[in-house]
Amino acid sequence: AQIFVDAAAEYVNIADSAGYMTPMMCGQGFLSGGRSRPFLWGFHAHNNLGLAVANALTAAECGADYIDVPAGLRGAGNAQAEVVAGVFQRLGYSTGLDFYSYMDLAENVVEPIMQRPQIIKSAPLMLGYAGVYSSFLLHTYRAAEKFHLNPRDILVELGRRGMVGGQEDMIIDVAHALSLAKTEC
Fold it and tell me: Which residue of 65, 91, 144, 156 shows the fewest CB atoms closer than 10 Å?
């Protein structure tokens, strides 16, 4: 955040695009920025571990100015607007969101056009558990097949190494190293 502020940013958005954060991590991150700051905070949560709404609430309780939410993207998508609107409204937050309208939008407009349901299944859960970006998934499946490995083991190792989006080319290297270690055992 300091780098952005030094570059004259007026808004800093924290994105948990891997769906890795827990409410405690989220709170620590927002509280470390302090409540008096020369910029606005925002938060964007993914739901890989099922914690997107809890993390959004934690961010708000710790001083986030904005919570980024789409309507109708459930499960392993993002913190859903309709759920955030309901939870926040119930807790007395003024969101400006019409709870009923967002429920109707999610169920009647967004859900019917989704190509696949946004639910927490093994793959999104592992992405969140390992803390790696979703663009790693298909590459990981291919590498796992090529090197006869469990894709979950590759994802965990990618997370352990701190790989970030844009480093998908490292998946083959990681899978190769894991296969060598496996054959040595």
Answer: 91
